[in-house]
Amino acid sequence: MRIRTEVTDYRQVVIRIADNGSGIPKDIQKRLFDPFFTTKPVVKGTGLGLSISYQIVVEKHCGQLQCISTIKEGTEFLITIPVELNS
Questions:
Q1: What is the predicted pLDDT for the residue at 49?
Q2: Which residue, among 65, 62, 57, 55, has the nearest Cα to 85 in the 3D structure?
Q3: 59-85 residue pLDDT tens
Q4: What residues contact residue 42 under an 8 Å CB cut-off, 6+ apart?
Q5: What are the phi and psi torsion angles at 27 (to 5°)?
Q6: Whether the Cβ atoms of residue 57 and residue 63 lie closer than 8 Å to each other
Q7: In degrees to the nearest 10, what's the CA dihedral of 66, 85, 83, 35?
Q8: Segment holding 34, helix H or strand E
Q9: CA Rg, the chain, in Å?
Q10: Does the pLDDT at position 87 exceed 60?
């Protein structure tokens, strides 16, 4: 796992969390941030984690949450939030 942070010229903070795992198939990537979506068996998980994370980053902090994944190469999540919120 690799975690990197940076401040861009656009006054944003970018946090990158990456792994070198098996990757996430495209059909699942499309649904990652949907409420209650899970790949786990019934009763093993609610699928709220990424949905709530998306809500916090996008709605509360006016940022972006992205997933970039390639099968057999790994996955990277990018969290981008402004350094200052405009009032």
A1: 87
A2: 62
A3: 999 999 999 999 999 999 999 999 987
A4: none
A5: -65, -30
A6: yes
A7: -20
A8: none
A9: 14
A10: no
CB 33 within 8 A of CB 50: yes
Gap between the Cα atoms of 35 and 33, Å rounded: 6
Could you tell me the pTM of the whole model?
0.86
Q: Look up residue 33 and give its two tokens.
A: 């941030």
Average pLDDT of span 42-60: 86
What is the distance between the alpha carbons of residues 33 and 55, in angstroms, rounded to a whole number? 9
Single-letter amino acid code for the residue at 56: I
The token pair at 54 is 């998306």
Q: Is the dihedral of CA 85, 7, 75, 1 positive or negative?
A: negative
